[in-house]
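Exam revision sheet. Question 4 asks you to relate a sequence to its structure. Input first:
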Amino acid sequence: MAALQFPTSPTPGQLVDPNPGVSGVTQYRWDNAKGVWNAVLSTVSLGTQNQGAYNNYKWPATNGDPDQQLTTDGNGNLSWEVPAAPSMQILTLDRPFNGNMTTGVAFTLLDAVTLTPVIPVPSTNILVFLGGVPQIPGLAYNINPPGTSTITFFEAPPTGTTFYAITNVIA
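Answer key, structure tokens:
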């Protein structure tokens, strides 16, 4: 293997061996603020069955920003992108609790920001809290019928009890 040649006047963020693509090769990035070369991709240890998959991707030559994720275009080209949407959604209810077993057990789940109905998909894709205490599905509440935005509590929560729930956003 030939010795690495580091530029005498590197530019900020410049890479040496910008696209190694093989196991056992280290990549270096120039840190202009500190005036040093830092290893950014130390020895890649991939088994022979995984090496082909690694080499089938076209890897970006730069690091992404903290708010970005590595994304593929479906053809093996990888790039740094800002996620399209948040992965979690905070929910609220269509009305406050009234403590009444007749009218205070079934509620509509709403997006806490837009106040539009939310259907957890699947119906178990939800974490529910009453008064800050996590609730156990099937013992404290159900999404009933499944595939709807209706949450039914087995006991009417007392008036003034706080509610919040979290669900994953399904794209």
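Marking note for examiners. Residues 88-168 form one domain.
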